[in-house]
Amino acid sequence: MSLTAFLIYFALLMIIPIWAQMRVKSTYKKYSQVSNSSGMTGAQVASKIMQDNGIHDVNVEPVKGQLSDHYDPRSKTVRLSEDNYYGSSVAGTSVAAHEVGHVLQDAEDYSFMRFRSALVPVANFGSNAAIFLIIGGALMQLSGLMLLGIIAMAAAVLFQLVTLPVEFNASNRAMTQMISSGIIRNDEEKESKKVLNAAALTYVAAALVAVLELVRFILMYVMANND
User: Fold this and answer.
1) Do the beta carbons of residue 55 and residue 42 sit within 8 Å?
2) Active-site residue among 61, 82, 99, 108?
3) Where are the domains of the chain?
4) Burial of residue 141, with CB atoms counted within 10 A of its CB: 0-12 exposed, 13-18 middle, 19 or more buried
5) pTM above 0.85?
6) Are 203 and 185 in contact (CB under 8 A)?
7) Tens digits of per-residue pLDDT, 113-128?
């Protein structure tokens, strides 16, 4: 790889995730200052959607931090950042509904969610060990060790790719539930979609960067074995 190509590649690795983070933060900041028409807090939105779907065994609780919202399937808990939990903004409503989208996936045993959960141990190993195996294999000229690292990295990349349909599906469920439950009006749909789409960009960016890294190491492996 030439110096110019390497610099372009490195710039892409840096710029893509930074751009995605800036986009989600700016969109969230904008719509966190816009109140939703229902006046419901994020906690109330989450509870209502679950009640409407007959789910009564999942707790909703506040958690510190910004954009720290998540659903923990192990403890059956939706955790919303304090601004979203107590606030009644369009951003908070959308984020809360998205997290409950994961609850609905869990309740119906959504296949991609189950697959992603099964990949967690392997993906964690790949994320932590792959780079050391690849670099070690390259330095010691052990192609087998390098290949093992690439396989481990591929597992981590697969996890990133499987995350995409899980997150997009949760957002689609969120929009459907917010509309059918009367949480948002028709004129608020566009604003809610902007929040959800911006958040989705972070997952797309992470997956793209992971794929680029995997391709780079595969090319390194192929070139090393052709020499």
Assistant:
1) no
2) 99
3) 19-226
4) exposed
5) yes
6) no
7) 999 999 999 999 988 8
